[in-house]
Every structure is written in structure tokens, then in C-alpha cells.
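Appendix B: a complete holo record

For completeness, this appendix reproduces one full record from the ligand-bound portion of the collection. The bound molecule is pyridoxal-5'-phosphate. The inputs are the chain sequence and the ligand SMILES; the output is the full three-dimensional arrangement of the complex, encoded as C-alpha cells. No fields have been trimmed.
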Amino acid sequence: MAAKVTRSSASELDRSNIARAFATSGLVLKRAQGVYVEDEKGKKYLDMTAGGTTAVGYSHPRLTKALVSQVSRGIDHIDRQTMITEKASELTDELKTFVPNPLAKGKAVFGHSGSDIIEKAIRLVRFSTSRPVIVSYYSAHHGANATALSASPTLKEMGTNALSRFFNLPGFMHMPFPDSYRPWFADGSKAGDDCLAFLERLLSSVVSPRLVAGVLVEPILSLGGNVVPPDGYFQGLAKICRENDIPLIGDEVLTGIGKTGRMFALEHWGVWPDVLCAGKALSGPLPLTMLLAREDLADKWEPRDYVGISKDAYILGCVAAVEILRIVRDERLVDNASRVGSHLEGRLKDMVDDLGLDGDVRGKGLMMALELVESEKTKAPDSLRARSVVREARRRGLVVGLTGTWENVIRFLPSLTISERNVDDAIDILVRSFEAS
Ligand SMILES: Cc1ncc(COP(=O)(O)O)c(C=O)c1O
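The structure of the chain with pyridoxal-5'-phosphate bound, as generated:
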């Protein structure tokens, strides 16, 4: 006879059935609508972190209708090796309306997670260039499989547990990401130039460009602490890649689909990569990711080199992504993200001044964050305060994220449908949370 399970609290539910390593915030959700979520006790929260996986707000009626309509038509899955649906091609056409040539003439590859699409991007450039080395950044985050982890050297993912070394694959080299607030070199006033010089030195004295299959970059470091590079850096990076004939892979899994106030974050700097990876909010509630690669690169990748996954380009994921992209366009959500993002940045900066906080407000569009330090002079991370403010905000009905190497960066990444009024509500709660902690 099956054991009867009784649980009295959410945290107990978390602990009784779900492995400790699968850490959650302890919030157990019952319902989600628009920019709000509700827990199992009926308490409502303004969710300022949903943008990671949601662009159009929770339970958007058009998305629900599109999914229900597809289910009622009956194709729930086909094996990509025997058949493909029109939807996968329709999705590719739809995504291409947001990018210029040569990507708009490029080809798509599908995946299930950000980690998966990053791994496929790496395979694609390796096979199409016949070169082994991928150059990525210290403190980057590209996902959780061994390939993505190898491109993500951080203290958390690589540095604290001897066992994590076993996920470290050969063929990866790393370089510093330009961080003007916590510079790798000198005083940070030339962080972009210094990091470009590092790459040039790497290519002239450590690894020949003829061995480099690609440079993989997040436009804004995510788990690295919402770090935005100085203007000019990406233009310089693209130039070095072009001059050395090295494909640039843009990891827009988190930053893409409007969250920074542009459809793709690299647009802020007028740069388009040779391989563009999208995920998370692309397909909202369903796990579908994709990349667009320059045609000449994609066409050099032979079918015999492609090890896909049975459900690549599965139909419900494609239906969701097509509808989400159309909603983003029809509701002009990228413009909204840009406008409300400026408001959020202004309100955060005012809050820092009013409360006399030490730290740094930075980001683009709605991907905005506040790094807390103990003093401007030492810049010692104030992780304790950040954690306690996030906890207090939760108690008061606001969900904000915590990121950064030392988890001292409070991050906002709401859905693109967020309003200025929602931002004002969030800041009011945050101010009271700072005062209480
Ligand atoms: C920039 C970036 N790339 C890739 C990934 C991996 O995506 P997923 O969690 O869907 O595997 C993430 C996830 O946080 C991310 O932020």
C-alpha cells in the first residue's frame, strides 16, 4: 500500500521529495498571472525575476489559446529524424524578422535548454571551422551540462568542489570580462581596452587563431553579477574576431527577447554575432531553445556530425515560441521594456541616494541590478545584507533575485509587460525591506 504523505509547510514539501542540490527559494507556487505569482497559501507576490523565462507575462491568453488549439489538433510529438513540422520553419522565419543579414539568411538549430543550445553552438563552430578551442569568459554562465560548465569558470560552478573538475572538458580557454566596477586591470577606466588587449595577447602568444573555433560571450554577465561592458568593447571584440576569422557566438539565452530594451542585447552596441543563441523567454512555459547561425557556418556542419535529441523542434515548443514572438511584436513589448527599464534604473539610483547605500546600480532595460558593498572604499561584498533584504522583500510580497559571485547583487528581470506602477510598488517594498534589515 502506498504511504500517505502529509506535509505541513512549503519548506517541508521542498525537503521531503526534492534533492537538496536542487535548491529552491522555498516558494511553492499555485498560480501565476501577468506579473504576479501566488503561493500555496494564497499569498500574492509581485514577481520581478520572471523575465528569465517569461517575456509576455504569465498565462497570457493568446499563448494559452495557441497551445490549447494545437493540442486539440492532435500532433503532440514527432521524431525529428523521421518528420519535421511546418511550425519549426515558421518559428525560424518569425525569429529572422528580428535580425539583420547575414543572420536573417542563416539556418536554425533547435534545443531544449540554454545549456543544450550552447553545447550545439559549440559543436557547430567546431565542426564548421575544424578547430578545437572555444574562448569564453571568467565568471560567465552558459548552463549546466559539461560543455556549458567548461565555458563557465566561476567560483560556484568550478572552484569550490574538487569533483566539479570532472566536468571541466579540454578545449576551453578563458579571458576576463570588462568590469569597470571590479576591474581586472588598473583602475577600470579602460576596462574594455585592457580586456581586448588581453585577447590579442592570448591570440598572439598562447593559442593560434587558427585553432580557435569561436569566442562565446554573454552580452551582460548574468551570474557574474549583471556586469555591463563599457561602450566600444563589443565593437572591438567583433573586429578582432573578424580579422582572425573566428566566429562570435552570442549567448542571448538570458538577455534575448527584449529584456534589455532591445530584442537582443548585442544590438545596444550595433554588433551581431555569427551564431545567435536564444532560449528561456523565447518559449516561456515550455523548454525549447534555438540558435541561428550564418548560412556558410551552418552548411558546413554535416548531418553525420549532428547528434540531436529525439524531441528537438517539438511542436508545442515551436507553437509557444511563434506566438510569444508575435505577442512581443504586436504589443510593442520591447519598447515597453526600454521605457520601464529607464524608470526602474532611475528609481533604484534615487533609492541608493536616499538610503545612503554603498554599491552600484547597473544594467540595461529591465535587466537591472544593485550590487551592495560594505563600503565604496573596500568594495567588500555585502552578501549578508543583500540576502536579508531579498528575504524581507519576499515576506512583504516582492520577489527579486540574488546574483553575482558573492551573491551580493540584487537583480530585477521582470516580464516585458511590467508597468511603471509595478516598478513603483516594487521600489516601495524594497525601501521598506532595507529599512527593516
Ligand atoms: C546566459 C545563459 N546562458 C545559458 C543558460 C543555460 O540555460 P538553461 O538553464 O535553460 O540550461 C543560462 C541560464 O541561466 C544563462 O543565463
